[in-house]
Structure formats: C-alpha cells, structure tokens
Amino acid sequence: MLKSMTGFGQAIIENENHRITADVKTVNNRFLDIHVKLPVEISSQEITIKKRIQSLLKRGRVDITITLTQTTETSYEINLPLLKGYLKALQQIQVELNLDANIDLALVTKLPNAIQLTTSSAPNQEITASVIAAVDQALAKLTDMRINEGQELAKELSKRLDFIDGAIPSIESNIGQLLPVYRERLQKRMQEVLPNTIQTDDTRFAQEVAYLAERSDITEEVTRLKSHVLQFRDLLNVGEEVGKKLDFLLQEMNREANTILSKSGELSISKVALDIKTEIEKLREQVQNVE
C-alpha cells in the first residue's frame, strides 16, 4: 500500500499527576531524518523514541515534540557548586573585559542544570510509560494519515499512467507509416542537392532509406516505455518503501520519451511524445512525496 511522506499525529496521555502531549509531523525527504524535542526531565527517552520511529517509518523528515506538564506540586533543588562556578566565571569576564553589566537572577536561573528536579520529583516509571504510550499513539495516527494520503496519491498517479497508456498506441500506429515518410523526405532532399541531369541509383537509394529507417526506429523505445508503465503500476500495490523505485522508473520513462522525440521527426509522433513527457514530469513531482 502506497504511503505519503506527509502527515501529522497527536496524542495526549493525562492522569492526576501529569499530562503528556506528543506531536509528530513528517514531510518528504530522501532519507529518514529524525528530530526530537524533549523536556530536560525526560531527555533520557530520546533514543527509545527514535527507535520506535525507525521501526515504522523509512523515509522523510520527522519532527516530534513531547511536552510534560506536572499536575501535582513539584520540588526543585539548587545546584550550588555549579552556580558558584558559573558566577565566578561571569565575574572574571566582567573584570577582564571591564564590563559594568550586573548579573541578574533571571540569567542565573537559565544556566544549564542550575536548578534541577529533586530525586523524589524526577520522572518515574509511570511518566516514562506515559511518554512511550503517547508516542505510539501519535505515530499510529500519523501512519493512518500517511496511508490515506498515499491512497489518494496512488489514484492520481494511476490517472496519469492511464493517459500514457492511452497515448502509446497512437505512436505505435504511426510507426508503420514512417518508411514512406523517410523515402519522401530523402527523395526531396536529393532533388534539392543534386542537378536534374544526374541519375540516382535506385538500389543505393533504397539502402539509404532503409538505413535512415533503422536509425530512426523507435519500436524498442516504445516497448520499454510500455514495460516501465506496467512495472510502475505493480509497485503502486506493493506494501513497502517504493518511492525510490518509482523515481528510478520515471527517470527511465523520461529517457525513452526523449529518445522517441530525438529519433522521430514525424510531427504526429513528436506531439504525442511531448504529451507523454509532460505527464512523466508531473508524475516525478508527485512521486517525491511517496515513502
């Protein structure tokens, strides 16, 4: 089942002691890029959270934010040795740089680890379990949204494939008419270049027409293009990471369309090939959001 790389999920776990909120948002990215924002009190859970994300997601930028609100009274302790060291360093800066600025309390309280939860108020197993539960629920909602968007994306991709499928027979029907066109084009060119008094060798002329037809033959390119479309459809129904494979197939389809354009000088074929190329470019834009 196709999955989009764009999605959002939120979960809230609340009881009489605390309230945990987990918000997770994903956007497209070539690889899996995880960014976790946690309160200092539960920073030890970062690795656990990343592993849970890695088990579910394969590609995309992931931003997850966890907030912890204590609903009961919480006590803190002051790290005096650390604060004394900070203040000594700040005072030295004042002296060395001849600064008149005062050190205020607001600055002191923002220093890292200056004020910490007491051991009795530190996150316990209950809070840790709530954090993991909130993350799992948020990821489940995110996954549902990515699947839903993926299904809509698959429908749009299928419509564009239908257009390409419908355009290919138009090229195939014109391939058989190319030989007379090449013969007429070569004959006209020879008449422009050679004087009327010079007789042309019919055998040589036929060889040149055959050579031109062989060099401009697009049967193989059309066959490969049809094969790529079929493979693309099959991948839309595969329940795994297919975004990179789809992107590769579209590169190949684009190459075949370009070759058809360069080989065939017939206006009717060139027009259809340009239409196909336009649809392939639209497909490539949409596939960038497929996991």
- Quickly give the structural class: alpha+beta
Number of strands: 6
Uncertain residue segments: none
What is the H/E string?
Answer: EEEHEEHHEHHHHHH
Number of domains: 3
Mean pLDDT: 82
Distance between the termini: 10 Å
Helical segment count: 9
Largest sheet: 4 strands, mixed
Strand-residue proportion: 5-15%
Structural notes for this entry:
With 291 residues, this protein is α+β, with helices and mostly antiparallel strands. It folds into 3 domains: 7-73 and 122-146, Ribosomal Protein S5, domain 2, CATH 3.30.230; 76-117, no CATH class; 149-287, no CATH class. It has helices spanning 46-56, 80-97, 105-109, 125-175, 178-193, 202-215, 219-236, 243-263, 267-287, and strands spanning 7-14, 18-27, 32-37, 60-70, 76-78, 115-117. The strands form 2 sheets. A 4-stranded mixed β-sheet has the order 1-2-4-3, covered by helices on one side. A hairpin with a 3-residue loop joins strand 1 and strand 2. The termini are close together.
